[in-house]
Design goal:
Number of domains: 1
CATH superfamily: P-loop containing nucleotide triphosphate hydrolases
CATH class: Alpha Beta
Oligomer: single chain
Helix content: 40-55%
Number of strands: 11
Shape: globular
Largest sheet: 7 strands, parallel
Bound molecules: adenosine-5'-triphosphate, magnesium ion
Distance between the termini: 50 Å
Order of helices and strands: EEEHEHEHEHEHEEHEHEHHHHH
Structural class: alpha/beta
CATH topology: Rossmann fold
Radius of gyration: 20 Å
Strand order of the largest sheet: 5-4-6-3-7-10-11
Length: 312
């Protein structure tokens, strides 16, 4: 069952619960942080209240991305929306059980401060099997797994026969997602929507990529995930990290001195298509909020006129 039509889910006490989106894949470098940032910005641009969480406490790429965005907004005077953000630092205790407890406490405390005041929480995870990573997968309403278009990345989900390309067995990560889903259903009867996103696709489809796509389709039926239209390999997805910008921002005003290229526009469209294909619980409120924020930002960039000052 997919959630639809309402922006915010209400629990029994009538409190708003944010919809949790987790970007996860135990394969490093598959595009989790990049995807998390683009989805967070895309949702904020649509007017949703978005909070973000970085569980990759060693690398902190997602945290830096957001810090860079905040600094750039200040320095360039750009009207950029920045999510409320926190990260969970690596535990400092010697015993594994104590470390897990410390991390759990940090995460639950952080989430308690945002889960009732935001529409979406976007969580970025490390490319390894950690306690926090498993915990996050168990909380996901939507799990997004970006993967590069190659059999090395596919191997994190399943092993295939080298001659027939039949699926031989499910890999550890796929099994742990299945387990997280099962526990989630038992805990609160919610069904996690799992979407695998093909990332860094090349403009010319090779035979290898066709095979990966075909294997993904077969595997999606076995494991119950959906395959989203992919994100292409494009410079725009990595060039703006120092400024904290994404393909969705109006970077032509702040960075480029020319109009966006066709590649920029195509990148924007890919992200918008990806967000649409997630089928998140969004509604008209979000769009109205986005409109108000845009008008406010426009008004703030104009100098005050005398009548405004007298009226205020
Ligand atoms: N579609 C894309 N086009 C071009 N470059 C990309 C694309 N997606 C990601 N990258 C680049 O690939 C690298 C890995 O991306 P990213 O850091 O988002 O992956 P990750 O899964 O978060 O990695 P890790 O497991 O190390 O946390 C980065 O240099 C990023 O800029
Ligand atoms: Mg990362």
């Amino acid at each position: 069952m997919l959630l639809s039509s309402t922006a915010v889910i209400h629990d029994e006490a009538g409190l708003k619960n944010a919809h949790v989106i987790v970007c996860g894949n135990e394969k490093g470098g598959s595009g989790k942080s990049t995807t998390a940032m683009h989805i967070a910005v895309g949702l904020m641009n649509e007017g949703h209240r978005v909070a973000t969480v970085d569980l990759d406490g060693r690398q902190l790429s997602f945290t830096r991305y957001i810090e860079n965005r905040q600094s750039w907004a200040r320095e360039a005077g750009a009207a950029l929306s920045v999510p409320r953000h926190f990260h969970v630092p690596p535990a400092t205790r010697d015993l594994a059980a104590e470390s897990d407890g410390q991390e759990l406490e940090q995460l639950t405390e952080g989430l308690a401060r945002i889960e009732h005041t935001h529409d979406f929480v976007v969580i970025d995870t490390p490319g390894s099997d950690t306690f926090l990573n498993r915990l996050a997968h168990g909380m996901a309403d939507t799990l997004i797994t970006p993967m590069n278009d190659s059999f090395i990345d596919f191997d994190v989900l399943a092993r295939v026969d080298p001659s027939s390309y039949e699926i031989l067995e499910h890999s550890q990560y796929a099994l742990s997602v299945r387990e997280a889903r099962r526990r989630r259903r038992i805990a609160d009867s919610r069904i996690m929507d799992w979407i695998v996103v093909r990332n860094r696709m090349s403009p010319i489809t090779s035979r290898n990529e066709q095979r990966v796509a075909k294997c993904l389709r077969h595997l999606s039926m076995q494991l119950g995930f959906r395959v989203a239209d992919g994100i292409s390999e494009r410079v725009v997805f990595r060039e703006f990290f120092p400024m904290g910008l994404t393909a969705l921002d109006a970077f032509e005003e702040h960075v480029l001195n020319h109009k966006p290229t066709l590649s920029h526009l195509a990148a924007r469209q890919e992200i918008r298509d990806l967000i649409a294909s997630l089928r998140l619980p969004t509604d008209d409120h979000g769009r109205r909020r986005a409109d108000v924020r845009r008008r406010y930002a426009e008004a703030m960039s104009k100098p005050l006129e005398l009548p405004d000052i007298f009226v205020n």
